[in-house]
Amino acid sequence: MKVNACLVNEDQRDCYQELVNVAMGQAADHLARLVGAYVVLPIPKVSLIDNSDLNMAMHDAKRDTSVSAVCQGFIGSGIAGEALLLFKDTSFASLASLLKYQGPLNRQMELELLMDTASVLIAACINGIGEQLEIRFNQGTPVILGQHCMVDDILNSRQDKWQKTLAIEIHYTLEQLDVDCDLLLLFSEESVKKLNQRIDFLLD
Amino acid sequence: MQQTNIEMEDIHWLMDILQHIDVGLVVLDKKYQIQLWNGFMESHSGISPQKAKDQCLFNLFPEIPEEWFRRKSDPVFQLGSRTFTVWQQRPYLFHFGNYRPITGQAEHMYQNTTIIPLQSINKEVSHICLIVYDVTDVAVNQSIALLK
User: Fold this and answer.
1) Which residue in B75, B82, B89 is closest to A112 by CB distance?
2) Domains contained in chain B, CATH given
3) At A20, is the secondary structure helix, strand, or coil?
4) Is A142 touching B (CB cutoff 8 A)?
5) ipTM confidence score
């Protein structure tokens, strides 16, 4: 618990929560407008995540063949992070019809659908956060885990780069539709310090 | 960029950069008519900016599936978020030859593209910019690595 206290204090955590709540409101609105369906407003969870927690999540995504995952890096004003979207494959059919994808849904199309959805969900959320903190975030090209890069390679090479960092978890669902996905925003340890400075500025 | 005051003479070299940067830049309006066509696009397509100007992208490049591209660009116009195409899913958007026609191993240029929103003064997204990256080397290297 000592480490937690060092990284983000209680006030800062509340502030992050508030910030993300506002951003989520905007993101859900964007999404609803795009798909023309009511998006259940999710309550994001701000927490500190361990290296091992993330590894476990990635392991699960790899083992469970019915889950697909996309990563996308983002950076703005020296604040860097990565978004990870975990998507239940049962959601593809309903999402495809929502976004007016025509024709039979093969694996290739599913992945493209996944990537498009990821870009929109991630952009909506980080832009919402960025606007409030006056940071303009850039997004890199999204990468599909398992297709564009191998999960084992990531797990093997990134073991000891960091221990604990700030994570924002968001669970999206669409009402009356079988769409179910989890968005994880992770900030690098270095960036948390810079983010804290901006948060302190808001708190003062 | 937003905060800096750009003088007239600076525009000159900014335009030079747009023209000579080894990345494709295409600005499209809401009717998908080409408004900017930089040097990279001109060189690889052989279509001059004068000819490309105000042409509909889909007329000029029938190889781009219209419905698919609209689906990619709709969120950019509507939500102001950027979207992407990657070579693993669609090897190229524009059918260009390999940058190294003699020693290059791939027959065509592999491309990653990003579509970004361009806001007008009233904050509405009136144009989008299509950025085309040549990722042939990455694609070829990865295919070789997979074969091994």
Assistant:
1) B89
2) 24-147 (3.30.450.20)
3) helix
4) yes
5) 0.78
In a mutagenesis test of the A interface, which of B23, B73, B84, B141 is the best target, namely the one with the most A β-carbons within 10 Å?
Answer: B84
Options 2.60.40.1120, 3.40.190.10, 3.40.1550.10, 3.30.200.20; CATH of A2-203: 3.40.1550.10
Q: Which segments of B47-128 does DSSP mark as H helices, in order?
A: 49-52, 57-60, 66-79
CA distances (Å), origin A140, targets A92, B16, B41, B71, B141: 24, 25, 22, 20, 21
* CB contact at 8 A, A142 and A120: no
Tokens encoding A114: 């996944």
**B83 touching chain A per CB within 8 A:** yes
H-assigned helices in chain A: 2-7, 10-35, 51-63, 92-98, 107-133, 151-157, 189-203
3-state secondary structure B35-67: EEECHHHHHHHCCCHHHHCCCEHHHHCCCCCHH
Place of tokens 């500190």: A48
Q: What is the pLDDT of residues A38-82, one digit of tens each?
A: 777 778 888 888 878 887 777 776 777 777 888 899 999 889 999
In this structure, which amino acid lies at residue B37? W
Mutate: best of B76, B83, B119, partner A, most A CBs <10 A: B83
pTM equals: 0.84
